[in-house]
C-alpha cells in the first residue's frame, strides 16, 4: 500500500478500544414515546409546524428551518404529539422539543421503504440540494452543520474535491465503520449524488488503516465508478477533523478562520452520504441513524440503528444494561463527546455514540505544575501553544490569547490527553475561546 | 449507581505523567552512573548518594516549612537534580561541599523561583557554578580514574584533558607534544580520563540519550544542534591551524559536552518550546562552549553556555512560534 | 589641583545651564493644556478604577464629566456608583453644578439554590470558572438558571464585597458593595442584579431567576419561583409582574408591605433587614434558612466546596494579580 497519507502537524495515538467493531448493526425497536428536540442542527433552531394533539406520520415534517443555517425536522415515528415542552437534551440544557406518543408505524406515502439499490440519478444540482434540504440532513459526524448549506457553494468559490469522511478517528466509535461495511453501495451512490450537487469531478473516501475490511470493500466498489477513489490513511487522531482530513488527502491547508471551500474542498461524513442517498432516491428524511453504544463495562457493546428521539436509556438497555460502577456517560466519543447528566436524553441527528465509562476512569487526575515539556505544542494539530493559551485564559489576558490564535483551536483535546501534569488545558482553551468570541462579537457590533 | 461526573472533553488521558518522565531520566542516567562508580569507586557513590539524599531533604524542608505547600518530593525531579549535580562535580569533593551544593541547587536554583516548572536556570548547573566559584581548587582537582578504587577519597589527582591542553598551550608547548599524553579516543569514549564523575564516558551518556529519545522524553533537536555546532566550530578552527587547535572529535568527547548536550540542555523546564527555538538554543550553547574553550579563561564552558542560553529562553519562546496550521509563515519572528 | 576642581565646576555648571535652557524651551513648546479641574475631580473619586461608571478608570471619568459639565452644564448620565451621592456632590461642587440625590444601590444575588435546597445530582470536574461550566452543563443541582457556585463574581469584585458561603455554596454580598456592577457582568447566568438599597436598607426581592414551569423548577430546587401568581394577585401596588413563570418585583412600585412574602408558597421572595414580625398564628415561616440546618445537611459538600475554594485561591495566586 506504500506510504500511508496523514496530516503533518501534531496528532496523538490514543488506544482505539473499538469494542463494537465486529458487531453488525441491529435495529432498536421503537420506544412507546419519543422526544424530538427542535434544534438538532448547528445554527438556528427550527420552528414547529404541528401543534399539540396533532396526528403525525413517520417522516412527516414537524418543524421547519428558520433561517439560512437551519434545517427541517421530521417525525421519526407515527403517533400523536403529546406536548411541545422543554426537555433536557445532549447539551445539558432544557430546550423546546416535541414529545410524541407512538401509535403503530405508519409512514408517509411518498417514502420508498424498499431495500432495492437505485443508482440512476436524473436530477440537477438544484433539485438535489432541495431534496437534501427537505430531508433535514445535517452533518452526522457530530457537528450537525446543515448539509444543504454546505452544498450551496457561495458565488466566486469553486470546489474541485469532495472528501467523504470515513475516518472515525475517535476511540470506541464504530458506527461509520459498520455503516460502510453494510451500506457500501448506497454510500457510493450517495457520493455520486453529492458530486453531482457540487459539480466536482473527484471524490476521495478517506478511511483509516485500522479498518482494512472497509477499505477493501469500498475500494472494490469505487473502482467501478469514475472519479471516486478510496484513500487509506495512517491511524492518527484527530484525522477526522475537517481541516486535518483535507490536509492528509489533498495536502491543502485551510487558511486560519476560513472554510474548507476556500481550498476547493467539501467534506461530508459517510453517514451523511448515506442519508443523502436515502433522501434523494427514496424521499426518506433523516429520521434514524446508527449509534454506537459502547464502554468497557457494558455487556454487549453494539451498533444500533435507532429512530431519532429514542431515549438513550433504551439504547443502553439493548447493549446489556447500565453497569453498576458507571461514573460517566458520554454522548459522542471519548475525546470530543459531552458528558451527560442523565440517561433521559434523546438521540439526535448528531449522536454518533454513547460511551459508558467506569467510575475509576471517569475522574480527572490531580493537576501538577507545568514542567514546560512542550508536549502539548508537539501534539497540537493546529500548531498552537496550548500551555501558553491556557495560561493567558487563566490570568484573563484574552486579547493576547486572540493574537496567539486561540480561535483556531478545534477542541480535539490532544493537548490535555498528552499533558504529563494533567493540566485541564482544553477547559482553559474553551474558556478563552468563549471570552475571545464574545470580544470579537462585541467589536463587530460596534 | 455512582453519582455521575460531568467534565469537559477529552474524557481520556494518556499515560504520560511528570513522574514517569522524571524517573525515565533517572533510568537514562544509570549507565553513566555505573561507569562513574566503576572508574571513581566508592568516592563517586558517596557523592551521588549524598547529593540525591540532600536534594530530596532540602526540597522537603523548603516545601513543608518555608512554602508550607504540598510536598512533592516523590515526583522525581529533585532526584534528577541530585544525580545531575553529582555528575557535575569531581568524585573526591568533600562531603560538606556536596551538601552545600544540594542546598544551592534546590534552594537557589529551584525553590526560590517557585519550584518545579518555574525555574529559569537548570538547578544542577546553578549549583555547579556556585561551587566552582566558591571552591575553585576542590572543584578542579580531578582524581585519576582507575577501575574500582577501594579508597573512599582518591588522593592521586590529575587534570582533565581540556585543562591539560589549555595549561600546556599556555606554557608554550606544542599540541603534538601534548597530545601524546592524552587518552585515546577509545579511552575517552569509555570514560578513562579525568573529569567530573558523570561526564567522562561519552558512550554511557549516548546510551542514556538514546533511551530518552526512544521514550520520547527528549527530542533530537537540542543534543544534535549542540554537538553539531561544537563539531563544526572546532572543525573549522582545526582545519585552519591543526597545530594550535584540537580536533573536533576530541572536542566532542572531552569535558562536559556530551553530558551537557544530552542531559543538561534538554531539561524541559529551562529549554525552549518549539523546534526552531530548540535548534537556536542548541546552536547558542555549542557556540558559547567553544568560545570559552578556545579563548576563555576556563578550560571548559558547557555549564556557563547552558546557563547563559537558559537566560534567553523566554525571549526565544516569544520569538519562535510553532508553524500554525493554515498560515504560510514559518516561525514568525518577533511581533 | 585647584585647577582640576575649577575646570570640573565650570564644565559641569556650563553643561547644566545649557541643558536647563534647552529643557525650558522644549517644555514650553510641548506644553499640553489640561483643565486643572481634571485633577481636582480625580482627587475626590475613589481611585478604584473599577469601570462601574462606564469609563475606563477614574481619570477618564473625571475628564469626561468635566468636559460634559463645560458643554451641557449638567452631569446627566454621570454617576460614580462606588462613591455614590457623597462623591457626586463633591464632583458637582468642583464643577459648579448641582446633582440630584440618587438612591444607593447594592448587588443582589437572586438564587437560593443552596446545597440543601437544590441537592447535587452530578459531580463537576474542571476549571473553577462559571463561564466554562455554563457552557458545559445545566448545573450540579439540575437548575439551568441557577448559580453554578464557582465564584466568577467573587473574582470580579474589586471591593472584597462578595464571597462564597461555605454553607450554601452561593455568593453573599456584604456591606462593602459599591454597586459597581462588575459581578453582574461576570455572572454568565444574569443572577446578580443591582437593586436599590431601600429605606433603612429594607428591600424585598424574588430570589430566583428560573423561567421554567413550576413543576420542573420545583423538582430541581425547593425554593424556586414557580410562577403561581399569588404574589401578583396579593400586591396592591402593581409592583409584581410575572413573565415566563417568574415573578419580578419592581422596586419603584414596591411599598414594602410584605404581603407577597407571606403568600409565596416556596419562600422564593426574600425580605431583608425587616424587624421580625409579631408572631401570627398562620404566617409564621422562617424566611431565612437557619444556618444550622444547612451545616448539618451538607457537611460533605462543605468539604467539596472548600476544595473548590482552594483551587480558586490557588488559581488567583497563579494569575499573579
What is the topology?
The complex is a heterotrimer of chains A (446), B (335) and C (321).
Chain A: E1 25-27, E2 33-37, E3 47-48, E4 55-56, E5 61-64, E6 73-74, E7 79-88, E8 94-102, H1 125-134, H2 147-151, E9 161-166, H3 175-198, E10 202-208, H4 212-223, E11 228-233, H5 242-250, E12 265-269, H6 270-282, E13 288-294, E14 302-307, H7 312-318, E15 326-331, E16 338-340, E17 353-358, H8 375-379, H9 386-395, H10 398-403, H11 414-418, H12 425-445
Parallel strand pairs in A: 1-14, 9-10, 9-12, 10-11, 13-17
Antiparallel strand pairs in A: 2-8, 3-5, 4-7, 5-6, 7-8, 13-14, 15-16, 15-17
Chain B: E1 4-7, H1 18-40, H2 42-66, H3 77-87, H4 95-110, H5 123-134, H6 136-139, E2 142-143, E3 157-158, H7 161-170, H8 175-179, H9 185-190, H10 202-214, H11 221-240, H12 248-253, H13 257-264, H14 275-295, H15 302-311, H16 313-319
Antiparallel strand pairs in B: 2-3
Helix pairs in contact in B: 1-2, 1-3, 1-10, 2-3, 2-4, 3-4, 3-5, 4-5, 5-15, 10-13, 11-13, 11-14, 14-15
Chain C: H1 2-29, H2 36-44, H3 58-72, H4 84-95, E1 105-109, E2 122-125, H5 130-136, H6 152-156, E3 162-164, E4 171-173, H7 182-186, E5 192-196, E6 203-206, H8 214-220, H9 230-234, E7 240-243, E8 246-249, H10 259-263, E9 269-272, H11 291-297, H12 299-318
Antiparallel strand pairs in C: 1-5, 3-4, 6-9, 7-8
Walk me through what this model shows.
The complex is a heterotrimer of chains A (446), B (335) and C (321). The mean pLDDT of chain A is 90. In chain A, helix 1 packs across helix 3 (175-198), helix 3 runs parallel beside helix 4 (212-223) and helix 3 crosses helix 6. A 6-stranded mixed β-sheet of chain A has the order 1-14-13-17-15-16. In chain A, strands 2-8-7-4 form a 4-stranded antiparallel β-sheet, with no helix packed on it. Chain A has a 4-stranded parallel β-sheet with strand order 11-10-9-12, sandwiched between helices. Chain A is an alpha/beta fold. Chain A is built from 12 helices and 17 strands. Chain A folds into 4 domains: 26-102, Beta Barrel (OB fold (Dihydrolipoamide Acetyltransferase, E2P)); 125-282, Rossmann fold (3-Layer(aba) Sandwich), CATH 3.40.50; 288-361, Ubiquitin-like (UB roll), CATH 3.10.20.600; 375-445, no CATH class. Chain B is mainly α and 335 residues long. Chain B has helices at residues 18-40, 42-66, 77-87, 95-110, 123-134, 136-139, 161-170, 175-179, 185-190, 202-214, 221-240, 248-253, 257-264, 275-295, 302-311, 313-319, and strands at 4-7, 142-143, 157-158. Chain B has a two-stranded antiparallel sheet with strand order 2-3. In chain B, helix 11 packs antiparallel against helix 13 (257-264), helix 11 (221-240) packs parallel to helix 14 and helix 14 (275-295) packs across helix 15 (302-311). Chain B is globular. Residues 149-155 and 329-335 of chain B have low confidence and may be disordered. Chain C is α+β, with helices and mostly antiparallel strands and 321 residues long. Chain C has 3 domains: 36-95, 3-methyladenine DNA Glycosylase II, Chain A, domain 3, CATH 1.10.15; 104-197 and 290-321, Alpha-Beta Plaits; 198-276, Alpha-Beta Plaits (2-Layer Sandwich). Chain C has 12 helices and 9 strands. In chain C, the strands form 4 sheets. A two-stranded antiparallel sheet of chain C has the order 1-5. Chain C has a two-stranded antiparallel ribbon with strand order 3-4. In chain C, strands 6-9 form a two-stranded antiparallel sheet. In chain C, strand 3 and strand 4 (171-173) form a beta hairpin. In chain C, helix 2 (36-44) packs across helix 3 (58-72) and helix 2 packs antiparallel against helix 4 (84-95). The radius of gyration of chain C is 28 Å and the shape is elongated. Classes of the chains: A alpha/beta (446), B mainly alpha (335), C alpha+beta (321). Chains A and C meet through helix 12 of A and helix 5 of C. Strand 1 (4-7) of chain B pairs parallel with strand 2 of chain C, so a sheet runs across the interface.
